[in-house]
Amino acid sequence: MLSRLKLAWRRNRMMTAAFVFAVFLALMFAVRSVVFVVYWSDPDHRDQRLETWMTPRYIARSWHLPDDIILSALGLEGMPGRRLTIEEIARAKGVPVQELEARIVAAAQQYRSRTQ
Questions:
Q1: Quick one: angle between helices 86-93 and 56-63, nearest 10?
Q2: Which of 116, 48, 52 shows the shortest CA–CA distance to 86?
Q3: Which of 9, 59, 90, 92 would be a feasible disulfide site paired with 97, CB 3.0-4.6 Å?
Q4: Domain ranges in the chain?
């Protein structure tokens, strides 16, 4: 195996480097996927109590909701940019964190009642 890699390196360095890079990327995404599955399979990470450090995407994953449900509840539809925490969103909108939490809970209940 190693001798074939050396031969390939001597014959065509660009293609060999591209192949090694592609294998590295595939392994990286495989490991990332396994970590993701293990993390979200843990019951401690499901339906977590809302905290100010959480991002809308984290809440959506924890509560098994589509991202757009959470973003809609927070009034952030179609907003690209960095990941804002619930606390940062509340401060930017000038509302208490508890109000945003109430919106999220209401949106989650409404979504779950529609899908059941």
A1: 130
A2: 52
A3: 90
A4: 2-41, 44-115
